[in-house]
Design goal:
Rossmann fold; 9 helices; single chain; Pantoate--beta-alanine Ligase, Chain: A,domain 2; alpha/beta; 2 domains; 6-stranded parallel β-sheet; 3-stranded antiparallel β-sheet
Length: about 280
């Protein structure tokens, strides 16, 4: 099994992408922080289907972690990641050092768009500042035709889409469906922190989203009633620390009281010491 070509310098990976474009090859980008699971690999497969050349990035971005978050314990499994990417015939893996992307004296950051203000923006101050900065840097370095992101981080996807639109980034930001285990739990690199009992408890997150989707399909349009039911489901499972459970407009992430356009149900909750997020699109029919 051939591993992807590993590149650590920004000018070398840029040269490869530019050369591919000169050959009229479509370039796909899959940004990751490593510790790859089936959710990431699904993005890679989609990129392979759509594009001629696939580039995956592996970089644990320090600027999107808060002072009390899990930067130091975030799993780093480069060799395993390269093997997984090789099995899917990824062409290039860009795995820069912190010093490569944030050299001494670095001081320029992106101001996130308005869609970043609520939810994760409130719970994790500075998070989207780091996300938008690193993604814009990657899109500047790698002139991809399409960049692929997972719906599990729905607000992040909307933030990146808005940033790309506002700043005239020519790369298409493609949103891909959340990948779940058979029992419904959304795949996440942080799931490995869960004990067996905590994993069972975590299933209440996807169950509450199922409840919300079911309520909408039965004609319920009062979003507050649905949110109350979602919260009750989480609390009944013993989840005590809930950062947010809410329903918002799918485009703006502004509050909605009645379902008149597509909306999104969003949850962030702590199971043990592990913070999990998930969401579900609620279609207005």
């Amino acid at each position: 099994m051939k591993k992807p070509t590993l590149i650590t310098s920004w000018y070398e990976i840029r040269a490869e992408a530019v050369q591919a474009r000169k050959q009229n090859l479509k370039v796909g980008l899959v940004p990751t922080m490593g510790a790859l699971h089936e959710g990431h690999l699904s993005l890679v497969r989609t990129a392979r289907d759509y594009c001629d050349v696939t580039i995956a990035t592996i970089f644990v971005n320090p600027t999107q972690f808060g002072p009390h978050e899990d930067l130091n314990k975030y799993p780093r499994t480069l060799d395993d990641d390269l093997a997984r990417l090789g099995a899917l015939e990824v062409d290039f893996a860009y795995a820069p050092s912190k010093e490569e992307l944030y050299p001494e004296g670095f001081s320029t950051f992106v101001e996130p768009p308005s869609v970043a203000k609520r939810f994760e923006g409130e719970c994790r101050p500075g998070h989207f500042r780091g996300v938008t900065t690193i993604v814009l840097k990657l899109l500047n370095i790698i002139p991809a035709h399409i960049a692929f992101f997972g719906q599990k981080d729905y607000q992040q996807c909307r933030v990146i889409q808005s940033m790309a639109q506002d700043l005239n980034v020519p790369t298409l930001i493609q949103l891909c469906p959340t990948v779940r285990d058979p029992d419904g739990l959304a795949l996440s690199s942080r799931n490995q922190y869960l004990s067996t009992a905590e994993r069972t408890q975590a299933l209440s997150i996807s169950k509450s989203l199922d409840d919300a989707e079911g309520e909408v399909s039965r004609g319920q349009t009062d979003m507050r009633r649905i949110v109350d039911r979602m919260r009750n489901t989480l609390e009944a499972a013993g989840i005590e620390k809930i950062d947010y459970v809410d329903i918002a407009d799918a485009q703006t992430l502004e509050p909605v009281a009645q379902l008149q356009n597509d909306a999104v149900a969003l949850i962030a909750a702590h199971v043990g010491i592990t913070r999990l997020i998930d969401n579900r699109i609620l279609s207005h029919r």
